[in-house]
Amino acid sequence: VELVESGGGLVQPGGSLRLSCAASGFIFSYYAMAWYRRAPGKERELVAHISSGGSSTNYAESVKGRFTISRDNAKNMVYLQMNSLKPEDTAVYYCRGPSWGQGTQVTVSS
C-alpha cells in the first residue's frame, strides 16, 4: 500500500493550490479517502473526506466553501483543491486511505 502526495508549496494569502495523492497497492475504488493536516504545534486534523464512489464528501468547518476534495477511481488519484488560502492553512497535508502518505508541505505567507 502506497500513498504519495504532491502539489504542496508556498503560496500567498488568497491564492490556490491543488494537492494530488497517487494510490497504489490496494483496490482504490473500495476505500473512502481523506486529507488531513498538521499545523505547527497542533494535532493532526481531518480536512476533507470522500466516499469510495465519490458521491459523498465532508469538510472541516474551517475549510468549507474554500476546499474541494475529489477522486478519479480510474486513475487511482484523490485531489484537494484549495482556494482562498489563509495563513492558518499552513500545515503538512496528508493523504489517508488504508495507510498514510508521507505528507506535503503547504505554506501560506506573503
Count the E strands. 10
Order of helices and strands: EEEEEEEEEE
**Helix fraction?**
under 10%
The helix tally amounts to: 0
Layout of helices and strands:
Layout: E1 2-6, E2 9-11, E3 17-24, E4 33-38, E5 45-50, E6 57-59, E7 67-72, E8 77-82, E9 91-96, E10 104-108
Question: Which features characterize this protein?
Answer:
4-stranded antiparallel beta sheet, single chain, 6-stranded mixed beta sheet, mainly beta, 110 residues, 10 strands, globular
Brief account:
This protein has 110 residues and is mainly β.
Task: Walk me through this protein's architecture.
The chain is mainly beta and 110 residues long. Helix content is 0%, strand content 49%. The strands form two sheets. The chain has a six-stranded mixed sheet, with no helix packed on it. Strands 1-3-8-7 form a four-stranded antiparallel sheet, with no helix packed on it. A hairpin with a 7-residue loop joins strand 9 and strand 10. The radius of gyration is 13 Å and the shape is globular. The chain starts with a strand and ends with a strand. The mean pLDDT is 97.
